Structures are given as C-alpha cells and as structure tokens.
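Fold sample X.
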Amino acid sequence: MAKEKKSDYKAENIQVLEGLEAVRKRPAMYIGDTGQRGLHHLINEVIDNSIDEAMEGHCDLIEIIINEDGSITITDNGRGIPVDEHPKIKLPAVEVVLTKLHAGGKFDSNTYKVSGGLHGVGVSCVNGLSSHFYAEVHRDGEIYVMEFEHGKTVQPLKVKGKTDKTGTTITFTPDPEIFKQTTEFKYEIIATRMRELAFLNPQITILLRDDRDDDGELEDEFHYDGGVKDFVQYLDEDREPMMEEPILIEGEVDMVPVELAIQYNGSYSQNVHSYVNNINTREGGTHISGFRRALTRSLKKYAKDNNLIKSDIKVSGSDFREGMTAVLSVKVPEPQFEGQTKTKLGNSEVQSAVEVIVYEQMNEYLERNPKTAKTILEKVILAAEARQAAKKARKLIQRKSAMSGGGLPGKLADCSIKDPEHSEIYLVEGDSAGGSAKMGRNRSFQAILPLRGKILNTEKAKINRILKNNEIQAMITALGAGVGHSEEDFDLDNLRYHKIIIMTDADVDGSHIRTLLLTFFYRYMKPLVEGGHVYIATPPLYRISYTRDNIEYAWDDDTRDKIIKDLKSSRKKFDVSRYKGLGEMNPEQLWETTMDPETRTLQRVTVENAAAADKLFSRLMGSDVKPRREFIEQNAKYATLDI
C-alpha cells in the first residue's frame, strides 16, 4: 500500500502557480489576513509607492477617494511608473510592476535610497486581490492606461491621450471572493494612517474624501509643517504639557537621518512611538535602545552637574521616561526587521547613530533651557519615589497573597489545567454574575475572577496608588505576570492564562468597567494587549422564547427583529425579554451564549495603531472633561468602542 501511494506522487502533482495566482491562493501570506485589517492593508501597499516618491523629493500631493461603488482611487503627482519595455522580461515596466511579485524600484538603491515597503509584493499583490484594477500613468507627455481583473490583464497598456502632468492613479475594487468578511472600507481607519504619514513626511499633503457620504462631510486634508513636533503635540492635546513646546532633535549620522520630538506631560505613563521608513516599529529595536541610552545619559549628566538628585534616591531608566510622549522617526537604507510581527529594528549601526545625535542635542537643549530641565528632573524624582513605593506595594501584595494560602486571590475560582496556553480567565462584573459563571463554566480550563464595582482609573493615578486597589491587586496576583513598564516588573512568560476575557453587562456601567480594565491593561500590562491575550465577551441582549424548550438569543436589535418577524410569519406565540445584566442569566444560559467555545463570540482586543490608541485612552480617561464630552457627542450613535 505504501509503495502504491508513493508512485502516485509524480511530476504532474507539482502545481505551478503562475502570475498572481499564488497571492489569490494564499492571500494571508501577503497581507496578514482577509478580514478588515487585510482589506485596509491594500491601501497602505499602494500608498507606500507614493510615499517612496515623496521621500525622494518627487511627490508632494497624494489624493485618496473612497468611491460611491466602494472602490478606492489613489493619485499622486510623482514621476509615474515607467512604461518603457523591461530589458529582460520584454514587457512594459508598468505591467511588470503590477503583475510580477518581487519586482519594483525598491530593490535598486539608485532609484529609492529609502523605502517603506521592502518585500516587493506591494501593488502587484493588490492587483491580484482585486476584482477590478485600473492603472493610469501620466509620463513623458502621454497618458497610459492598463486594466486587470482578478490579477489578469484585460486591457494591455495603451495611450489614452496627452498630458502636461506626471504621476500615477490606481483604482481598485477588493475581490469579494477573497474578502468574504467585508469589502467595506472604514473612513476613520484610513484617516488615522494618512494623518500619521503626513506627520512623518511634512513635505507632503494628503487629501482624503469619502464619496459614499451623502452629506459630503467626510473630507480631510492632512499636512503638518512641524512634522514629528506637531505629531507629539497632537498626541498630547488632551494632556497637560509641562513645557512650552516639545524638544525637537534632528540630525544625520552614517546616512541615517533621525527626527525626534519629546514632550513631558502630567500623566504617569510613557508613550514612545517609533518609526522606520514610516513603518510603526511597535516592538522597538535598536533605534529605541539608542534613544533610551542617550536620554538617560544626558539627563543623569545634567542632574549630577547641577546637584538636582539626592544620593539616597535611586533613579532608573524608566523614571526618565514617565510622563513622556515622544515620536522617533529614522530612515534606514537597508532595514533589518525581526521579532514576531517583523516590527522590531535589528540594525546595530542605527543604535549608535541615534545615540550620538540625541545625546549631543539633548545636552545642548538642557543647557539652554535650565528652567525646563529642572521641571523634567523634578518629574523624574517623583517617578523614582513612586516606583520605590510601588516596589514596597508589590511585596505587600505578594505577602498578602501568600498569607491567604496558595498565593492566589481567595475569590478566584481557578481551573484545573495548569498549562497557560490552554487556560482562560473570565474577569466578571459583579458577585451575582460571578456566581453564575462559576457554576456554568468548564472547570478544567476556565477560571473565574469576580470584580466588585469599578476599578481605579489608572490613566490619572500613580503606580503606587494603583497597587493599593483591591480589585487590581486580585488581577495582578491571578494573572501572575506582574505589573509595570519594564521587563523586570512585567514578564509575559509568567502569565497563567493565555486568554483573559472581560465579561461585563451590556449597559453604560458595563462599558465603563470594560474601558477601565482596558486602560489598565494598555498602560501597565501592554504586552498582554500586543500579544493578543485580551478578549471581550459578547453576551446576548435579548432572549426570545416561543415554546417551553425553544429559545433563541439576539445580540442586537436587527437580529431580534428578524427572529420576531419569522415567528410572526409562522404564527407562533413568543415572549421577548431584554437582559439588564449578566446576573439575570442562569448558569446554563451563560454557558450556552457566552462561555461555550463552540457557540460563543469573543472579540480580541488589538492595537493596530499604537499612537491612535494612546490618544484615545488619554482623551477618554484623562483629566480634561471637554474632549471626552466632545468624543461622546460625536460617537454616541455608534455605541461601541473600537480600539
């Protein structure tokens, strides 16, 4: 039998995928996924080409239009994709770029010294995943056009007319065969990325318009002369700055241009956002290491020279960054990315370049601005004192846990499995719902931790005060990974559950509690969110019963109305009840609707754009009431929080 099976494996079994078939066969390999994230990534792939032209000084205007039919049109005033015949492939260069993977000017250092997208699959990948793709190139006084369907040429390159402009226009329609979940672009997701690109590239103007909007109000122009300095001020709009304007550091060493803006504010968290060739390096890397070393060295030197820190106060590197918002942008000719999501820079030469520039210019700034320097170091001293108090509080938590037996909170109903990868914990609002969850759960892999009332708003509190909160103490102890910003304070390897599920009532109080928990996780256990370990449970809003044993559940009004319509058409008697809270469900109902892995729906909390999340949390949870009220007024109709 084995020999017969082996003989079936012949040359004819080797499948050769031609053109862009490989992209259509395995789209997630190229764009991450085929959900909302992958859909919007298509725009980024096209925009990257325009931004590369801008970084070389050939483009200063980009226009993005979401068309009425849901397609996207992106136009730039760059040089236009070359249209002459490629010497090796014997096809027009534009056709090579749009139909061949790993083809483009980004591999030629004479064309692009610095490039954002370095995988070489960008715009051709978009073509392969579009039901219709149209390219128009203005170059050499001519307008050239090409059309494709599902990645295949349906209109070869031809001259459409004359022009006195240069540039490229791409229009594409995402293929619903690929993007089965949704093909609807979200204006705010696109706007967030375009705003970010405009901050990082002050030489360009980006116009964004949504032609699907009947009111004609969805239109923005993004242009920021101040670059990263404006970016920091934008992020800190809802915080109280401790300086008149941000510190701006600019320089270049060994062909690595560095731009950095720093501002200290009254918050207790550190928010450092880094970019390499416009790519958000969420995992940091050598450029962040160079920045941190230089900042610590410079501030320590100034403090020592001016006797600003007493010898009995032990200051660590993280103390120098508390209450800081910073944006670091570097341009690297040949970036080497590493880490799980390929967003960690590995180039060793970049660390020294950043460190040299930041150390020299930071020293100069502190000497020229002694008043601001003193304000910063006073903030540093307070951070060090709070950190030392927090260290004592952590020890008290550990001692308290040990005295309660087993080192875990008394109200925690733990699971029997000890393998974190297969364990999950529900953080449940209220003792009543906690009781139902404990009775309804699967004890082998589901732990339950009831939380009483609302936890402290960690956006507005020092770490030592945060650690005195009983509910926060219980969570820290149950999760087992620690709390804080440094690797010493928080270690993901010690996490006891790989799924942390927030389960609250579907009302205003429940939403508030959920936001408080997310704020705490994002600010003090950030690797939990970045690692995809935090989830939100979605209990149903309605229970519809039409016989003793027939019950249906609805998670929104539309589903409820559809069920009711079907029941009315079949002339069945029914009863509709709205759940006011989790406590109204019995254990069986809670298991069936919200906790059973076979039937439940969990929303994973992700942070696609750290800068946007940072601003959102400071706006919703900060001290200033006005921006929070404005946000609620603008977004009340949506009734959900998408992070």
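Fold sample Y, listed below.
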Amino acid sequence: MGGPVGEGSVDPGALLARADAARDNRRWEEAAEAYAAFLRLRPNDRGILIQQGHCVKEAGDPAAALELYRRAEAMEGRDADIHLQIGHALKLLGRRGAAADAYGRAVALDPGGRDPWAEWLALRDSLPPPRVAGLLLDLSDLVSWYGHRRAPSGIQRVQAEIAAAGEAAFCAMHPEEDVWRVLPAPLFHRLHHLSRTGADTEDPAWREALGALEAWRRRGHVLRPGAGVTIVTLGSAWWLPRYASALRAARAAGARYVPVLHDCGPLVLPDVTPPHTRAAFGRWLSTLPVLADGVVAVSQATAAEYRRLMERHLPGWPVPPAMVATPDGRADDVPEEAPAPVAPRGLAARFGFGRRRSSPFPARPTPPGLPEGPYVLLVSSFEPRKNHLLAIEAWRRLLLRRGAAGTPRLVLAGRRAPGDGPVMEALRDSALAGHVTALHEVDDAGLAALYRGCLFTLYPSRHEGWGLPVSESLLHRRVALVSEIPSLMESGRQGAVFFTPNSAEDLATAAEGLIADPVRLAALEARIPRHGGLRPWAEVAETLGVAVRRLAPGEAGRRPTALPPCEPVRLGHGGLPGPHPAIAMAEALLQGANWHPAQDWGAWTMPGRAALRLPSPSEGPARVSLALRPPLGASGTLRITLSREGAEPTVAERALEEAEEVALEIGAGGADLHLVLEAPGTELTTEGYEVGVGAVAVAVMHGASLADRLAYLENRVLVPVRLS
C-alpha cells in the first residue's frame, strides 16, 4: 500500500487526507512522507510541520523530528506544545538536561498544563548550574509567602506579576541561610499560576508544587552574585535575619543591589506596627547608604517619604538615589466591561435606592456565597493600618440614616492579619449582622467576581505605598472611594473619588452620595478609561528594569572617611528601634558574610575568619582597641591580625575564653586598617548555631598619642561597651 507519493497529479487536500489516514493507522513512515509532500506545496504550514515531526519521531528518528520541531519553533516560539515536543525528542536522544530546559519553557508558557510540569519535575535534577548575569530578581519574600499561604496579598501580587511578565532570572533566600539559591523559572511560574487560580492550600496540585519548592530549598543551586549582576529585591526581604551578610559578600564580589520600596509604613505608623517589624525595617533602612546603589519606589509619594526619613534619621550619610516605577499593571485575562448606561436623572430620583424592587443600579451578578442585593466592596488584608474600623463606623452611620433597606451590604474581602482583633470584634455587633460580611482567602477568580458585582469600592487606608486595590477597582471599571493621601491620589488618579482621611463622617457622606445618586455613579464609571488606565505587567517590568539601570553603578559601598576619634563604635544595633547613624556605621565596618546577624550588644563572628575595615585617622601609626565577648564555654585560641598597606601586620593571640579587650598597634601606611578575627567554633546551645567570638565595639586612635589613649579611656568609661 506504500510507494512514492506523486505531487504532480495530487492536490494538497488529497495529500493531507492520505497523510492523516496513514497517521491514524500508525503507518508512520508513509504518513511522514505524505506530510513532506504536502509541505513541499505549503512550506509555511506550521501545524503540518509538527505532524510530520510526530510521525518521524514515532518511526524511530527523534533527531529528524527535533529538526522539524525546531523549524516550527522558529515560526512561533510562544507555543507551549512545541517546547513539550522538543523536550520529548531530546529525552529520546538521551539529552536530559536540554530536555528539562525545553520542558521548563513549556511550563513557563503553559503553567497550568499537567504534562509539561510533570515532565520538568521528573528531569529537573538534570539541569546544569545556571549562569546568571544582568538583572536578578530576588523573590525571597514571595517564596516565604508560598510556604504558608496560597492566595497572594498586595506586595506578593505585585512582585509575582512583575516576575512573571519579565525576562530576568530569579533567586531566593531561605530565612535560615545567608546564600541565595537560583529559583527555577518553571517552579515559580507553576506556583504563581496555582496561587492565582485557587485558595485551597490542601489542593493536591498545590501540595505537589510546595513539595518541589521544599526540595529546591534543600538542594537548589547556590548562587553567589558577583560582577555583572544586579540584585533587585522585588518584595520586603528586609525581615530576613541574614540578608545583610549575604549582601556584604555580594557587594565585595562586585554585585549591585537595588531594592524595591513598597512603603515606609513601619516608621510612618508606629502605633499600628509591631515593635519587631518597625525595628527590622528601621535597621534595614540604616544599611542602605552602605549596601544599596539606590532604591526603586512604587510611587512619587513613597520616594518623597523615603528621602525625608533618610535625611531625618541618618544625617551625614548620603541618601541612595530613588527612582520611581509605579505598579499600575493589569492582567491580560481581565475581560473589558462596558460602563453602565447613564439613566435619566429624573428616573433615578423617582426610583430612589431601596424604595422598590427594581433598583436604579445596573444589574450585576452576585458572586457565590453572598446574598442577593447590592453591595460595596473593600479589598484588603485586615491589618490595622488599612482602617477597616473606619469603614465599619461609616456603615453604622449609613444604617442609622438610610435604614437597612436603603443601605447596601459592605463586603470586606481579605486575609486575617496580626492586630485584626478589634475589627473581628466589631463584626460581631448584632446591629451590623446581615449588613457587613467578611470573606477571607479569596482566590483571583472570586476576587474578580466581587469587583464585577459591586456598586463601588472603598479603600480607607491610613498609609499606602501605592494602593493595588484601587488599581484593581478601576481595572474592573468600578469607582473607588479612597482616602485622600498622596499615594492613593496617584493610584486613583484615573477615576477615584476621595474623602478626608480618617473621617468616618466624611466617608459616610461620600458613600451616601454615590448610593443615593446612581446617575452620578454611572457617569463616574463612564469616565474611567479603558482597562482603568493600567498598563500590561510586561510594561511595568520593563519600566522597573529601566529605572534600575539608570541608577549609576558604584553608588553603594559608602563608608565613613574617619571614625569618631578615640570613641568606641558599637558593632551591634544597641536595641535601637528605628533608623540610626550608629547602625549605618556598624554596617560600614563589617566585611563579608562571616558575621551572624547583629544583636543589641554587638555581633558574633562565624567560626573561622571574620573581617573589619576601619578608616584610620591618619596615615601615621595607629592603635586599635577591640572590645570582645567570648561565648560561654569557649576554648581555644583567638588570633587577631591588624594590617594596612605599606606596614608590617601586627598579630595578637589570646585564650578565647579570656578575651575581653585587645589593643593592637601598627606603623604608618595606607588609610584603611584591616582587622581579621580568627576563632574556632563554639556552639550556642540556646540559639542552635556555632559562633567564633563576639565583637562588641572598636575604636581607632593615633598610635603615638598619649592624649588619644586617655580620651579613649574616658570614652570607654562614659560609653560602656561590655554588657552583662
């Protein structure tokens, strides 16, 4: 039944029918030959090219199939299936690493597809260590979030959307480590897809992806960024205890560091911020003059706030420059909705809200889980600064004024958060029963349904960096009624209505104005631009990249030209709750990653070598005094080396358990003094890790000056450095 296929007397349709019939009957060689004949007549038919590749592969020639698949890929590279087929061919050829890479591309293009994910998961350990250059997106904060929750919150959503839309490589750091690991793009895209499509943390697909994430945390490729790499921290990684140590090592190797600043809330609203959060944020801010090339703020308001805080709290330290890249992005899969028709004003007056069954508001679907009827939506986590209590109080006033029949339901959609007790208590008030509804852990589909069904949205937040729920409201062509604060005036500029911040009366009055006048509400909706005036996330990612590159390299690593003469400089944070020059100074002196996180009294070194770099008061002879803290139960020898360019190093050795203060002198030479501490390991049983020695404070003085020594001793008494 085989034989050569003659193209001269057979039309393309007949050739295709013959090829399909042969394929369906598993006559692979005959089908491949017929498809080849068809392609000689129609060489740009990509689908038939792929069919020929399938038949060639089934006939036992995966190399020829791979060549055909590559030709199809060149025609359209964003087809997930062609990368899946390329992976199959490469796997048959024994090229497992290349196959895993092809499967990974398929996952990135189709993160919900089961086959690409399963194939990549099976071969992921075959991938070679990646080579990273250019922008490196640090997703540590997002990865930690996925370990505990599924549906994203605001900052998590922004960083996930930017990462998914861009082209940069990813990395992340486990909270207990001080190194980054390369985060495989397929793993990220799978987690991102699942986080957007559900909220059930027990879903088998989600549990499987989390298992892959946990395996990556244990054995993912370690990354030590160096020259040519710019670490862009997309989320709030400042809470990671060992982050500064890793950044020190990366900076020393030539890498750049640019964090994205989402807001300055911990310092602006200390009354609603847990003390440990405020302290961690303030200490991180203190390190920026030393570690960061600059920051990218999410709004002009946030950039201005950052500059004010730095100038107020860190006088004398240069402020790293700030660029702005607004997260005014939109998902590609949000259907566009036509604005509601504007009814005649007389009709609205005649059919006032709640007076009869036929509402003057446009008919909108009620999302599952909500009773029928109009509602107003507030989307936000239940943390105190979001001001849910203000919205609840405004609704009490509306109910008193308009009655239950004339007041739409208030729906609060967002996750529970620390400090939300007063809000949950307020919701138990019987007077609000049936009028205020709280929904937690809503997935993206449910959130979109809530936006589509609401009359308008509220956002009474006391402080924001940008205000993503305002953007999302406008994206769904819903008017947002928001606090008139600078950042929300930016995010709401395309169609929000503003009220006096923190005023329940003004909020109630503004909300009543929208409820009682459907014509005005419809007119305001009609003015919202297409897609809410938002950009595709790919454009946001591109804008961010441009902003990072515009920050001049070499801006970081600022160090003091001199230390306070003869004065002990603490190497810990001193228990300071916020930004402080002393914290910046300590960060400027520590070198490399071999330091444990700073404590109030100082910092433990790790076993082995840890270094300090100290500016000398002059190029003449210098004396360095170092206050130490031996760990409990320590034994062995502590070796301290003081060196500088052009001078003979000085070495001191002490029994580690007795080392509390050491002074070393060195001859004239270069401006920088280098101090290296070498100590064996001692386990801290309560903390569960090993340390070398505790460095409490350091002082530098002229080596030949008796007056300097006396001044140091006086300062030593006035500013004690040894803590019990």
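Sample Y note: Residues 1-7, 343-358 have pLDDT under 50 and may be disordered.
Also: Residues 148 and 201 are 9 Å apart (CA to CA).
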